[in-house]
Design brief:
Blueprint lengths: L10 H9 L1 E5 L5 E4 L1 H6 L5 H14 L15 E9 L2 E14 L2 E10 L8 H44 L6 H30 L9 E4 H18 L3 E5 L6 E4 L1 H18 L5 E8 L6 E8 L6 H6 L12 H12 L3 E8 L2 E9 L4
Amino acid sequence: MDLHDSGLTDSRLLAQLLQASVLVVDTHCGIGFASPGACELLGTASEAELRTRWADIAAQLGMASWPAQLRVGAAYQARANLVTPRGPRAIRFEVHNVERGRGTQRIVLLRERDKLLPSDRALLLASEAQATRHALTGLVHAAKGPLNNFTLTLALLASGIERNGEAPVATSLRERWLRYLDVLRNETARLAASLDEIHSLALPAPSARESIDIAAMLRDIARVLHHDATLREIDLEADAPTTAVNVVGDPRLVRLALLVFTISVLDLTPAQARVTWRVAPSAAQQRMAALAITTSQGSLPQDLVASLFRVTCTAESPYSAAIAGRLIVEAQGGEVSIESDAPGRHGFVLRIPLAPS
């Protein structure tokens, strides 16, 4: 049976699926199997209890509207906000059709949208490693600037001292040396700040949920990846307000999500094009900040569009970074969608909950 990236072609993924929330539904919409994880996720204590409540749950999952036929290797992906005896559950699910004799069985993979799972760790670490490589390129380039200025100014200062020897120092020369000293002090501070940023990438950060100025974070992402974009001959811009736009989430994970989405769009953008981040609060009743990253040229590969909302994914997937970014955003209580309806505007839209005012 071919379940694509969420399938059984990888032994590690098979191990994940054996622990995952899985339903098997028959052609008459009856439950053939429910894993313990699926029962718990759907708010029931056992498969027997799930069967008694299945009609209500199936209706909430919109089962009547699931497509009867799927092309080979494709899956139906959707989400639902379930009302269960154990409280509300934000669910993402994925349906695969499997032919069995004369009938078709549906394998349904489920997960909570607002929670990162232990099985996501490898995917997140792989995405973090990829993002860090790009970030280091920009940070090292930024550190070389003050280092070069530092070296040049030291050479000028040494040359001036050597030429004058023991002679009395003129006022103009003294002022020149003082300027050199100011440059050295300023560049030393810049170099130290760049090295601190590089060092921070190696420090473990505890999980936290706090207010984040997402506009400032986007500007910083554009700064860090500016050199990488320049090497690709791409303009990278952050069209973000100068006033704070505060969202709530884990700063380390949100920054990683912004990095991987930026890198994903840079990867599909040709030279001489522009990649832009835009940020603005959504409608007041939504209490979300809307962030959009788009490319002026190029489009999202269809494989990426099909993969973005998969329930499970291995780190070997070519789109694992974007999928990890989507998992992170959903774990903050947000959502990700694809923007491809406007000419010259293809990319992603992220919605992250605003911090309480």
